Amino acid sequence: KLYQTKHLPEELTDGDSGAKISSVSGANRKRKWKEDEEEEQKEVKKEQHKTEQNGQNEKISDQEKVENKTPSQPAVFIPVDRSPEIQEARLKLPVLAEEQVIMEAVRENPCVVICGETGSGKTTQVPQFLYEAGYASEIIGITEPRRVAAVSMSHRVAKEMNLVVSYQIRYEGNVTSDTKIKFMTDGVLLKEIQKDFLLQRYSVIIIDEAHERSVYTDILIGLLSRIVPLRNKKGMPMKLLVMSATLRVEDFTDNTKLFRTPPPVIKVDARQFPVTIHFNKRTPMEDYTGEVFHKICKIHRMLPPGEDEDEETSETMRKFKKAKQKKTVSLPRIDLDNYSALPVDEGDEDREAGIGDEEDEGSDLDIGDDPASIEEKADPSIPLYVLPLYSLLAPEQQAKVFRPSPHGTRACVVATNVAETSLTIPGIKYVVDCGRVKKRFYDRVTGVSSFRVTWTSQASANQRAGRAGRTEPGHCYRLYSSAVFGDFSLFSEAEITRRPVEDLVLQMKDLNIDKVVNFPFPTSPSAEALVAAEQLLVSLGALKEPPRTGRVKEMEQARLSCPITPLGRAMASFPVAPRYAKMLALGRQQDCLPYVIAVVAAMTVREIFEDLDRPACSEDESSKLIQRRARLTQMRRLWAGQGASLLLGDLMVMLGAVGACEFAGCTPKFCEENGLRYKAMVEIRRLRGQLTNAVNAVCPEVGVFVNPKMTPPTEHQVVCLRQIVLAGLGDHLARRVQAEDILDPKWKNGYKTPLLDDPVYIHPTSALFKTLPDFIVYQEIMETTKMYMRGVSAIEAEWIPELLPQYCHFGSPLESPSPWLCSSTGTIKCHRSSTFFRVGWQLPAVEME
Ligand code: CDP
Ligand code: MG
């Protein structure tokens, strides 16, 4: 395997080796678009270049040779057959004016940054420039942080070029051996790097939407900053283009860890019509969704339509609809039952993608109802044609925003921040911006997650406003005051700084990047997060334990550069978070693998159940909802089973749901009747297939065949499953506070975890809400009204010291009169015991110590 060559790790972690090569092109780089900066930097860099080049003469001549005889300066022009309308539309795009400058920069530099407003044509046109200039000797790959963009952009470019353009997202794609241009999510490319570090099938990689700073995009840029020079060194030149919507590219360009010589930045001027910004005098804090609704109705009533116009908010549609129901808005008349002018929409309520996948979880709407059923008839003569737009919406539904609205209607798009930069909707004249963004927050120390609606950044707000001026002058209504805007942070922070990083650390270790701290991240995750990730991976057995003796400084160093173990390699090959990967690695025992795969798939795809807390829209609905809730609760009880199986808790409910659904043929009807999200169930099915293949690849002799139709696990297997779950979720252990220990009433029915001072609770919808087992493991803690554990399973106390000795303090029972109490360090103490059902830790394919 290429990535396992010995010298690679140094080149990856050490900023020097790659940069020396790129300095070659840096030396002859004198492009006009950089002239000003160049002059300033020249003096500073002169000395540096001299010394570098003296030591690098040999490499330079190699490099020059390579460049002369390879297609890195293709002279061929590949004709493209475009329709006259497409050609005309293209010519209007600002990026067309920069084609020569861009292509010249690409020819002369290994890495180029292109900056331009959304809608200037970067995504659709730059791949075409490269194709026409003959760079498609191998594949031209474009990464997008979102699946929506990858799919829709490939279709768009295919249409423009009259050519097959492929896409690849996590579960689907249409790549063939003839593929020349390929759109994919950043997660997909990262997986490909694991298979072929040099990405030999690509001649160009374009990292799109770099300003979004998605974790995978950041890592890709870090990796590619090393891969590109390596490729050039090996005589297989490759180009890297980084495209960004905002001008804040300093993280990439002025980051000497990343690129010793800053890559040239080409600015594409936006062809933007003026957008008048209207601030609110006051800032609604509570019912801002009602306010959005109010504003849209007002615009619809009072303002003239554009050619084809949209209003856009980053908003939750459930509230949108609720606000309307509550009649907080004074409107002529709302007829909710009149759907005639409306498209049929599945009304998916996806919230986020699976762990280890590429979707921005904060970007999705929390939609409770079929959004397309919102119809506004404020002006009886022009119905409002309301379309939802969010990243997990089915592609056909998304495509609707690009089509003209039905004759005689006025379009209104209710969108999340996916419309901020990734997709440009034509003809928007009015933008209503509530100024909020829903983000997932994660506490690094305690591991508690919560979704919070917070103010967006100034850069994002300006992006949103900009959407109104694409085809004619527009207006942006900001539902907050200018003073509030002034308090917004300038830019949104990189995602990598606000999420756990253990999955990334494991992937990087699998790429033999042992010193993750030294990796050239555009923005580095905090040292704290990296330490936490290494610790978790060590405790899962994925990384070698660092030595416990030696000099303090050396031990500190060792703690941050633990090498990967064979188990870790197996885990890294499963496309799920490390805790779940551990479960998969153990799953073959007692023929549990099909069940483990199903449970892991269900835990990875979030929100597989309909939300029972959904508020009712009307009184009539309210009584129906009560009935429905009762039925669904009963259904879940059925899936949870009784006795032994009940102890597997919420995971048993998931397993039951998956099993039942498969037996019923996984139809939308079954899902609807039983409160399952159809889209989630389909995704689980795909993921089960994918995980089965991954497991079979790691241990071929096990030869799992997952029949979609599983029979329920035996009692024996349920016990084994609970232990496997404990082995994976060992750091998510909680102990019920015993009655005699309760001093403060808040601890009633509360659980203690090693890291939190406050109690956590089992959610009322959990299968174990009434059982309240003494020891449990949980999937995650979500803070809503209280700190609730989700995905709870009961475990037996005596399993803990055997399966998780790393988390236990062993003492004789005499030392501590109440051995179940938490010690002051927060460690959960328990007895060693002799009776337990042992889960083996070995994997067949790999030798473990
Ligand atoms: O990437 P960037 O934001 O710079 O622009 P783009 O996505 O390449 O879009 C260029 C133009 O193509 C915009 O004016 C879009 O409205 C248009 N477009 C379209 O009409 N249909 C699509 N499916 C995608 C883009
Ligand atoms: Mg774009």
From TrEMBL:
Q: Where is the composition biased (Acidic residues)?
A: 345-373
What keywords would UniProt list here?
Answer: ATP-binding, Helicase, Hydrolase, Nucleotide-binding
Record flagged with keyword Nucleotide-binding: yes
Q: Which reaction does it catalyse?
A: ATP + H2O = ADP + phosphate + H(+)
Record-level GO cellular component terms: nucleolus
Start and end residues of each stretch annotated as Disordered: 9-71, 304-324, 340-374
Regions that span the bilayer: none
> Taking every annotated instance into account, which residue ranges of this chain make up the domain Helicase ATP-binding?
103-265
The top EC class, named as a word, is hydrolase
Family according to the record: Belongs to the DEAD box helicase family. DEAH subfamily.
Q: What is this protein called?
A: Activating signal cointegrator 1 complex subunit 3
Q: Which organism is it from?
A: Sander lucioperca
Mapped onto the parent protein, the portion here is 123 to 971 of 1072
